[in-house]
Amino acid sequence: MNLRDLHCIVIGAGIGGLATGALLARRGVQVTVLEARHYPGGCASTFTSGGYRFDAGATVGCGFHSGGPLDNLGKELGIIWPVHAEPIAWQYRHRDLRLDLSSSRENIIARFPRSQTFWDEQARLARTLWRLSADGLPWPVAGARDVAGIAGRALASLPDSLRLLPFVRQSAHEWLASHGLDADADFMRFIDAQLLISVQTTSRHANALNAAIALDLPVAGTWRVEGGIGAVARLLAESIERDGGAVLYNKKVIRLDSIRREVLGVETADGDALAADALIANLTPESLEVLDDSPPAGKQDASASSGWSAFMLYLGVDATIFDHAGADHLQIVAPDGELGEGRSLFISASPEGEAGRAPEGQRAVTISTHTDAAPWFETLHQGRERYEEMKKQYTDRSLALLFEQLPEARDALHSMTAATPLSWELWTGRRWGHAGGYPQTSLFGVRGPATKYNNLFLAGDSIFPGQSLPGVVTGARRTVELLSQRASKLRW
Ligand SMILES: Cc1cc2nc3c(=O)[nH]c(=O)nc-3n(C[C@H](O)[C@H](O)[C@H](O)COP(=O)(O)OP(=O)(O)OC[C@H]3O[C@@H](n4cnc5c(N)ncnc54)[C@H](O)[C@@H]3O)c2cc1C
């Protein structure tokens, strides 16, 4: 079937779904996006509450550098992103250690001089990886064509690509140990904190190559998005509409209508039934399963599954606090204890003076910490009171860590709302509120866009290469490629 005759439904207006939909619409596919909420963006949305505009989850714009995934996407779709380069990506704070992460490693090397050779190697690996994945990687391979594609790129990047081989099965910890850095507790805590927010796991479990590219993010550059990160989703939705597609809000898909290995269409909560030739599910596999088996007999009562989500605080804060903090994004890590669960915070303040983000003299601040989703659902099961107690414990622990580094914030809070994995489940439709993508422990066994259906593909941070705006945009290109290959082979 010609792509131009194809009608494609995209379930979900997260960045992965919108980027896939926009690329397809640009190629002439008739695209209809169905979004459960009344706004786009999912984990990367910006919402209004009590006079503030808060970023819900993602706050740091990445991938907008020249040739980066967002830059290339914007050029292809004719979008001029309203972004401004940040001089400091974020500031790391642990006890009395403060490190500004930016395009230069000099301050990190000055503090940890023995890490010089590690950073030299990281930079070399990252350069090769960026080059290999410049226009999306055919990974995980889905046939001989992809194997040939990978081999072609590797050959074109020789001899650098050969240097990747020893790291393919190595953990980040083994790599750091090979530089004699594993005994430096402060350096390892710093690296673990960087890896947790980027590859969703710490050095003992993270793959070395995933770590090499993740540690490069501040070097590649970070951007502030005017009006909040949600502007990216809004511009992608507009691009779909400009190319003849539709983005329908308050349209929650509740069931897939399928025969054997084909999905014929979807049913929505408001009683509509829509037919499609092909579908993109901007969902986690667990959320897709719920639609697939509908009604999900017994599934709602199944015990909660473990996996990362985020505990959040949305604060209205005196602007002066951040005028003196040294950066608008701070990563604060507790003196000791495992990271996450309120012992490591990522804090982002709306830019100084940005109109519409906060009442005069204040900033809208988003604080997040990794949390295992399951205990939240289990605690709710024991009663609302227990759940509220748990929420208070996390709030107190997070605020204590914030005040340890920014004591003046104690008297500068104007408003505060907490959110938990239950909020993430409600906001994004992600089963158990699992957010932030999968832990990048290995390059093998990762998920691609294909599903058990011939005409339904996944998009978003559950597929390779995983979480972040550049991650899901790179994944979107792979989804488009697989759908196009299938469309040329099949009679849909
Ligand atoms: C706390 C936090 C902080 C983060 N920080 C950053 C950061 O600073 N920088 C960065 O680049 N990345 C960051 N990320 C990661 C990034 O936000 C995500 O990887 C990315 O936004 C996920 O996009 P997605 O396409 O997978 O879709 P999602 O964001 O999951 O969106 C899915 C969409 O589908 C809709 N939907 C779900 N079910 C249905 C249904 N049945 N019918 C219709 N619609 C449905 C949802 O409402 C939602 O809009 C962060 C993530 C979190 C959670």
- Morphology: globular
Structural class: alpha/beta
CATH topology of the domain at 3-45 and 66-83 and 227-301 and 435-489: FAD/NAD(P)-binding domain
CATH homologous superfamily name of the domain at 3-45 and 66-83 and 227-301 and 435-489?
A: FAD/NAD(P)-binding domain
* DSSP E strands, number: 20
The Rg value, from CA coordinates, equals 22 Å
Unreliable stretches (pLDDT < 50, length at least 5) are: 295-299
- Rounded mean pLDDT is 93
- How many helical stretches? 17
Q: What ligands can be seen in this structure?
A: flavin-adenine dinucleotide
Work out the strand percent: 15-25%
Topology summary:
Elements: E1 7-11, H1 15-26, E2 30-34, E3 46-49, E4 52-55, E5 61-62, H2 69-77, E6 83-85, E7 90-94, E8 97-101, H3 106-111, H4 116-132, H5 144-156, H6 160-164, H7 172-178, H8 185-199, H9 208-214, H10 217-220, E9 222-225, H11 230-242, E10 246-248, E11 253-259, E12 262-268, E13 273-275, E14 278-281, H12 285-292, E15 308-318, H13 319-323, E16 329-333, E17 344-349, E18 362-372, H14 374-381, H15 384-405, E19 413-419, H16 421-428, E20 456-458, H17 469-489
Parallel strand pairs: 1-2, 1-14, 2-10, 7-16, 14-20
Antiparallel strand pairs: 3-4, 5-9, 6-9, 7-8, 11-12, 12-13, 15-18, 15-19, 16-17, 17-18
Helix pairs in contact: 1-11, 1-17, 7-9, 14-15
